[in-house]
Specification:
Elements (H helix, E strand, L loop, with lengths): L1 H13 L5 E5 L1 H11 L1 H14 L1 H7 L4 E16 L14 E20 L1 H68 L5 H36 L2 E5 L16 H11 L1 H21 L5 E21 L11 E9 L2 E10 L7 H68 L4 H36 L4 H8 L5
Parallel strand pairs: 1-4
Antiparallel strand pairs: 2-3, 3-5, 5-6, 5-7
Helix pairs in contact: 1-6, 2-5, 3-5, 4-5, 5-6, 5-8, 5-10, 7-9, 8-9, 9-10
């Protein structure tokens, strides 16, 4: 059985086979995640794409100047009658035409009045601000997501260590029970109970190893690499309540600064601007157009006649006619367009924008309520977890004392193997609960600051100082 456990441990470690690094702190993992996490890189690309709204909409108000050029050749060779002067030629006569034409033109277009374009330029600032806020919110979300998966790995490692310790302790108890049974001090049922406890501990260790491998995979999903050892919190954590120590003040800060909520407010303002933009479709537009063009046309026509005529007394005769022209031109115009009837298109677009604004308003209310709940819940979570950490720490000490007393009673025959197994399981649960409560305390501090919109790398650095480097 020991060989099986060792093999499973090796498999759990090899399941995360990838480029691995020895030890890293929370700050190290976050810095790698900022480079490698696809979610935050996608958010960055989305922000950069939306930031282009400002120059694109400004371009619609600036002059539009374009240059075009062309070159064309036209050749024709026709057979048939044609008039050369003094008579119609026969059908055997030919008329050959070769024409070359080239030129260029320069055109200018300038919008003088288009209310929709002006409104879109004003709206672009809000679009860029919303995109930047959303990107900053994604970075805060990454920080919390990294911390959650970081401490999930540590919790899984604690479970594995506890499972191994429990298995080893039960194995020693099983050996002791077998020896005592051999000398007739206990019944076979005590040995069987110890064996059952050992089998359960082996199963629990296998499950803990699997959970650890899965936790490593979740962390690798963010940073794209495996870290075999993570720095864990020091034994003494600074269990300090949030400052200010008032849930409503944290809620007020969150309602003003929470990045997701701010982005939702900007989305509502953008949707409101969309209504004004669509209504501008009913207004007239005025634009100026001007242009200049030059071209050259070279045309050569050759006629071959085989019919006698005054112009061709002795056929065959060849007549050639060529000319070169260089026309140029200038033009300008003021174009005023007033939409009178668009088949109901403008009305439909306005109504669509109104519905979209309504949807964004409801989304804002949903995010506001969610933000308030998250801020209050995170604050209460920090407060309760401070007491929970202290209580679970005392529970670990009490269970250790109880286990020592139970083992001593088992030695003298006043306690059974079942009592020892129950005490060992209680201690294991107390230890894992204590570790988990410490991790949850740190996570709730980060979640509280995320809800308030104040979470930054400085907070990661502060938490990093609580870890054993």
């Amino acid at each position: 059985m020991m060989r099986i456990v060792t093999t499973l441990t090796a498999l759990a470690l090899s399941a995360v086979a990838a480029p691995a690094f020895a030890q890293a702190s929370l700050l190290d993992v976050y810095q790698r995640a900022m480079i490698n996490d696809p979610v935050v890189r996608e958010a960055e690309a989305t922000y950069l794409a939306n930031a282009e709204a400002k120059p694109q909409r400004r371009a619609a108000l600036l002059p539009n100047l374009s240059l075009s050029a062309n070159a064309r050749n036209q050749f024709s060779d026709s057979v048939g009658g044609f008039d050369l002067g003094g008579g119609i030629s026969s059908g055997d006569d030919r008329n050959i035409s070769d024409s070359d034409q080239d030129g260029w033109s320069l055109s200018l277009r300038q919008t003088l009045f288009n209310w929709a374009t002006f409104a879109q330029l004003k709206q672009a600032d809000k679009i860029v601000a919303r995109a930047e806020t959303t990107y900053e919110a994604a970075k805060q979300e990454l920080l919390v997501r990294v911390a959650e998966r970081y401490f999930n790995v540590l919790a899984a490692e604690d479970n594995v260590a506890s499972a191994i310790a429990a298995r080893e302790a039960i194995a020693r108890q099983l050996e002791q029970a077998q020896r005592r049974f051999e000398v007739g001090l206990i019944a076979i049922t005590d040995v069987q109970q110890s064996q059952a406890g050992y089998d359960d501990s082996v199963a629990a260790e296998i499950e803990a190893q699997q959970t650890l491998a899965t936790s490593h995979e979740f962390l690798r999903e963010i940073i794209g690499e495996v870290i075999t050892e993570l720095a864990s919190p020091q034994e003494e954590l600074p269990l300090t309540p949030p400052n200010p120590a008032n849930a409503e003040q944290w809620v007020q800060t969150a309602m003003q600064q929470n990045l997701t909520l701010v982005a939702s407010r900007l989305a509502t303002e953008v949707a409101l601007d969309d209504i004004a933009i669509q209504r501008a479709g009913r207004l007239p537009t005025l634009s100026l157009q001007a242009g200049y063009n030059e071209s050259t046309q070279d045309r050569l026509t050759t006629s071959i006649s085989s019919t006698p005529s005054p112009a061709c007394p002795t056929p065959p005769c060849r007549f050639t006619n060529g000319n070169v022209t260089r026309p140029d031109g200038r033009n300008w115009s003021l174009d005023l367009t007033f939409p009178i009837f668009t088949g109901g298109l403008n009305r439909s677009r306005i109504q669509q924008a109104v519905y979209q604004h309504r949807a964004s308003t409801e989304a804002l209310e949903r995010v506001a309520r969610q933000t308030e709940r998250q801020a209050r819940d995170a604050y209460l979570g920090v407060i309760s977890l401070i007491e929970r950490v202290r209580a679970t720490q005392r529970s670990v000490e009490s269970n250790r004392t109880a286990l020592r007393a139970t083992q001593a009673g088992f030695e003298v025959g006043t306690q059974t193997a079942v009592d020892v197994l129950a005490s060992q399981n209680s201690l294991r649960r107390a230890e894992t609960t204590y570790s988990r409560s410490r991790y949850d305390y740190i996570l709730n501090i980060l979640r509280l600051k995320q809800a308030a919109g104040t979470l930054s790398v400085v907070d990661v650095e502060e938490v990093d100082g609580w870890l054993q480097q």
